[in-house]
Amino acid sequence: MPSSNIFKQFSLPLSFGGAAVSGQGGGYGFGDIKEEDAVSLLNYSFDRGIRIFDSAPVYGFGMSEYHIGKAFKQNREDVFITSKSGVTWHDSMRINMTNDPKITQKMLEQSLKDLASEYIDLYFIHWPDKHVDIRKPMEVLAKAQAEGKISHIGLCNTTSDDLSKAQEIGNVEVIQAEYNFFSRYDQEVLKAVDKSNMGFMSYGTFDKGVLTKRVTAKRESHHEYDHSDCRRWAPWWKQVDRTQRFLSVEKLERFLQVRGYSLVEFALGFNLSHPQVDSLLCGMRTHAQVDSVLEALSHLPTDEILQECEQFYVS
User: Fold this and answer.
1) Span 163-210, pLDDT tens digits
2) 104, 246, 304, 311: which could form a disulfide with 85 (CB 3.0–4.6 Å)?
3) What is the DSSP string of the chain?
4) Domain positions in the chain
5) List 28, 59, 123, 179, catalytic entry
6) At the topology level of CATH, where does 5-240+264-308 sit?
């Protein structure tokens, strides 16, 4: 059951990962998508029952937020939109990560414009910044919350120390972090989620395609990605050897097939088997992928099968 009142209002434990509609904008994204296709995909997701749409300025350098704003301009009150501060960029498009409170304020105002909205339902500080005390940007967000520009405050990829400091300034209601079969999040923060009754959103549910075989050793070796796909050029992706994960997924798929389950069903089931997880972020890029994920939610592996799958875990 969801642990946070924020998520209790939603019938699906699923959020739309906005990097999927970043288009050719650059920054953090997963391939080309035309504006009309992005808007169509977002509207289709809404029609299928998805209500949470997550974004950030660095997704397409504002393109993701623009697409989300355009898609829901006429029914803004019916969707729950999240965005973030902290990952900005220079004129050269070089990424700059900072929690400088002046930048936080600037990014918030720009996101409101790009989303064509007077408010953002849930606003995160995107990453910790060792050069800036997190209480400084939290003061900006607490003020914006009092002004009605944001409804709820969250932290992404946080540490237990930053979480404690942030809570001195305002009410942190949601944690968002990478969580999947291969990436297990900081247990100390998860304990804090339980203790404080916060919500938890997991991203990277499919390990950016590895867990569903959208990303394979062959695709990696041939660089079969659009130029706007960060998996083509990002150092944090290219410098990691995924050989053991690819081998593990092959074994995992064979194990699951015999028992009547798919990799998509496993990936969703793994996350939802952890009580802290309230909402799964999934980066769906086509109508068919939306359908596939929604269908998978109704056929998840049992706890016994999930436990047996632990034999295939690799770090």
Assistant:
1) 999 999 999 999 999 999 999 887 888 888 888 889 999 999 999 999
2) 104
3) --SSHHHHT-SSSEEEEGGGG-GGG-BS-BS---HHHHHHHHHHHHHTT--EEE--TTBTTTHHHHHHHHHTSSSGGGSEEEEEESEEE-TT--EEE---HHHHHHHHHHHHHHTT-S-EEEEEE-S--TTS-THHHHHHHHHHHHTTSEEEEEEES--HHHHHHHHHHS-EEEEEEE-SSS----HHHHHHHHHHT-EEEEE-TTGGGGGGTSS-HHHHHTT-S-TTBGGGT-HHHHTS--HHHHHHHHHHHHHHHHTT--HHHHHHHHHHTSTT--EEEE---SHHHHHHHHHHTTSPPPHHHHHHGGGG---
4) 5-240+264-308
5) 59
6) TIM Barrel (3.20.20)
